[in-house]
What we know:
Chain A has three helices and five strands. With about 140 residues, chain A is α+β, with helices and mostly antiparallel strands. The mean pLDDT of chain A is about 95. Chain B has a five-stranded mixed beta sheet with strand order 1-2-3-4-5. In chain B, helix 1 runs parallel beside helix 2. The mean pLDDT of chain B is about 95.
Amino acid sequence: MAETKEFRLSSRIESVDEAALEAEEFAKLSGFDADFISAIDLAVRESVANAVKHGNKFDLTKQVEITFATSAKGFEIVVRDFGPGFAPDEIPDPTNPANLLKATGRGILFMRSFMDEVEWFNHDRGGMVVKMLKKR
Amino acid sequence: MADITITERQAGDVTILDLSGKVTIGEGSVALRTTIRRLLGEGKNKILLNLGGVGYIDSSGIGELVSSFTAVNKEKGTLKLLKLTQKIQDLLAITKLLTVFDVFDDESEALSSFE
């Protein structure tokens, strides 16, 4: 049966943990196993951290909108920030030898590695959305 | 409760940091950075990071491992990793950082490698 959970969090680092805990609880109730939940956990943490840090730039007047949805297909995560947006394909490849020793830029790689589908788009009413699916 | 606990031990001129908890964006990453900078300030530049107790790491934590590695190298020192969990090993493989770090499962073997 399809289930959905929607909530908003403030643009603080603590929201990363809060979102991950919500995801874990929601995924457990839906009967997903530990490996599946571990992948969801990482994708939620990376996407919410990006939204707080790079999207909303820690602006407490902006929130992060999060939706989790389970269906026959799997577990879907949608995270929206209210920042200016960015072009994911322009983020340097962190596995390129020239970038290996850079301290940042690996979050998107992790999301793409642990989820089956990942897409970014600009929201009609502003902000950037990342939508991810982990298949059953 | 703190996200991370860092316990310091000395084995000859090698400083071993036993990490437990989470190395993630925020407190965990900052604690590691602060400890590494302090050790370098004290002239301790042979550092072995024991990650056996790290239950969780994210891209920020991985970035902090890289920053620590480059900071130690800059001071003509060496930073090596000990006891990677399967999860951390997977993340280091995805990011191709297993080619960067010296990684050991056995502490005495790791300590010998500094000589």
